[in-house]
Amino acid sequence: MDFQINNNSENKSLLDNEKKEPRLAIHSFHRYYGKLIPAIPSAFIKKYTNEGDLIFDPFSGSGTTAVESLKLNRNFLGVEINPIAQKIATVKTSPLKKETLIILNDRLLEIIKNNDFEICETDFPYVQNRDHWFKDFVQKDLILLKKCIDYLFDNDIGENIENKEQYKDFYLMVISAILRNVSNADTMHVFPGISKRMRRLEEEGKIHIDVIASFERAIKKRATYYNYTNHCCKANILLGDSTKIDLSQYKDQVDLIVTNPPYISSVRYIETLKLEMYWMEYIKSSDEYSCLAHQMLGNDRLQKKEYETIELTPYAEINSVISNMETIDKKSAKIISEFFLSIEKVIENMSLVLKSGGKVVIKISDSKMKKVKIETGKFMTLIAENYGFVLHDVFLDEINNNSRSLTTARNTYSDIITNDYIIIWEKK
Ligand SMILES: C[S@@+](CC[C@H](N)C(=O)[O-])C[C@H]1O[C@@H](n2cnc3c(N)ncnc32)[C@H](O)[C@@H]1O
User: Fold this and answer.
1) Is residue 88 domain-shared with residue 114, that is, in the same domain?
2) Average pLDDT over the chain, rounded to whole?
3) What is the whole-number distance in angstroms between the Cα of residue 188 and the centre of ligand 1?
4) Residues enclosing ligand 1, CB less than 6 A?
5) Ligand 1 atom 10: residue of nearest CA
6) Domain count, the chain
7) 307 domain residue, yes or no
8) pLDDT number for residue 67
9) Domain finish residue from 198, 223, 248
10) Is 5 inside any structural domain?
11) Residue 168 forms part of a structural domain
12) 159 with 267, same domain?
């Protein structure tokens, strides 16, 4: 394998041109760290597929590739392990009508204004340190919103709406989207935390939270986002683990894969949306939270007994990095071995679903752990060759300004990630 950066890549020029195109508003529905820039799926969906084709993303996150597929009249299949991400992506790609949302918005706002719902202790979701994160009146207003949404869909006009569950999910995800802004956590931070800045603003009386007004603004704004596709194609986002999920029913069905896998031991994606996951009841206890964190690719929350034995991979070059790391730090060695063993299973699934001649476009970075460089892109390509892929192109992609906050977050947990690549494989 000759893994050489192509400095004259035509694909890089193609992507750079695509980056000048305006970005769809729907991408801003909900914050999500580690989002792909939409130009990546857009450029390569246009280049490698036709209308009606099927695009796959095994790490679909908040659904950037899904949205871009629908925009270009392609079907989409995704897998995502984090239930809140799967829901965000599903809401963004549901066939909702702006006109219906406007009617529902008006009715919901009326219900909110005239409501006399009572709130009792059992209405409060389990959130670790709930009173630390949310003021008392904020908690009550958030519960009230949920009650009004339930009422709208279960007892009011929602009953007569086609696809009512999809519309209901829209409103629930808007609560999730505004949650950080109405919490005590600093909105400028990637991970929820109460900063000195927030404390100072609080002392100076400069924090004015209005849950209902934020919600009203947010639903009105988001209703206008649903004009980006005519929904002649569908997105199907499966909740599951890409290393284990059975995709045999999609064998040889996929025309193109566009994805960005998690980085080795970098961002704890799940932690960035911790408050939203607890409040929206996607996780109901700290045990459930730890359990989900454990299943995620790139998980670095390992207990000592978990890294006593370190499994090697079938690849000598990867094993030499693992063995070297074992002499420096056993836990890091385990994280690396787990990452490549898991990614191998995902690559196997990619090879299963992709049509012969189809391309895989991957955005990935190298990592550094304990000052040792891990050539993630090169190693993944080594594995891919074992599953019938050939390297088609590899070029550098500058980290864009939008992901600066993420870069900071990455660096908090692992060393600086030096290069972001786009790698393109072709299935023989
Ligand atoms: C870099 S993010 C992808 C972001 C996505 N492209 C977007 O634009 O929102 C990687 C995603 O992989 C998900 N993930 C981690 N381990 C997974 C697994 N075993 N199976 C499926 N998804 C997984 C994470 O929850 C995260 O959403």
Assistant:
1) no
2) 92
3) 22
4) 32, 34-36, 59, 61-62, 64, 79-82, 85, 241-243, 260, 262, 269, 296-297
5) 262
6) 2
7) yes
8) 98
9) 223
10) no
11) yes
12) no
- The bridge status of strand 354-365 relative to strand 420-427 is antiparallel
pLDDT, position 399: 63
Domain CATH number, residue 41? 3.40.50.150
Q: How far is the CA of 63 from the centre of ligand 1 (A)?
A: 10
Our mutation pick for probing the ligand 1 site, out of 33, 59, 69, counting the most ligand atoms within 8 A of Cβ, is: 59
Residue 173: which domain range?
98-223
Question: What is the per-residue pLDDT across 14-48, written as a single tens digit (0 to 9) for each?
Answer: 999 999 999 999 999 999 988 999 999 999 999 99
Mutate to test the pocket of ligand 1, among 243, 296, 367 (most ligand atoms within 8 A of CB): 296
Could you tell me if 199 and 341 lie in one domain?
A: no
With the CA atoms of 294, 259, 311 and 81 taken in that order, what torsion angle do they form, in degrees rounded to the nearest 10? Answer: 20
Residues 162 and 257 reside in one and the same domain: no
Distance from Cα 35 to the centre of ligand 1, integer Å? 9
Tally of residues, the chain: 428
Q: Are residues 135 and 272 in the same domain?
A: no
DSSP 267: -
For residues 290 and 408, membership in a common domain is answered with: yes
Q: Is the pLDDT of residue 404 over 50?
A: no
Out of 223, 255, 289, pick the residue that ends a domain: 223
Question: Is residue 155 pLDDT above 70, yes or no?
Answer: yes
Cα-Cα-Cα-Cα dihedral of 39, 45, 51, 54, to 10°?
-120
Mutate which of 70, 71, 81 for ligand 1? The one with the most ligand atoms within 8 Å of its CB, which is: 81
CB 1 within 8 A of CB 381: yes
**Same domain membership, residue 391 and residue 251:** yes
Nearest C-alpha neighbor of 142 from the set 285, 276, 288: 276
DSSP 3-state assignment of 177? helix
Q: Model's pTM, two decimal places?
A: 0.94
Q: H-type helices in 25-135, by residue range?
A: 39-48, 64-71, 83-92, 98-114, 130-133
β-strand partners of 354: 254
Q: Classify residue 277: in a domain, yes or no.
A: yes
Q: Read off the pLDDT band of 408 (50, 70, 90).
A: very low
Give CA–CA dist 94/101, Å, rounded: 12
Taking the centre of ligand 1 as the mean of its atom positions, its distance from the CA of residue 99, in whole angstroms, is 32
Quick: pLDDT tens for 242-253.
Answer: 999 999 999 999
| Ligand 1 center–CA 57 separation, angstroms | 9
CA of 261 to the centre of ligand 1 (A): 6
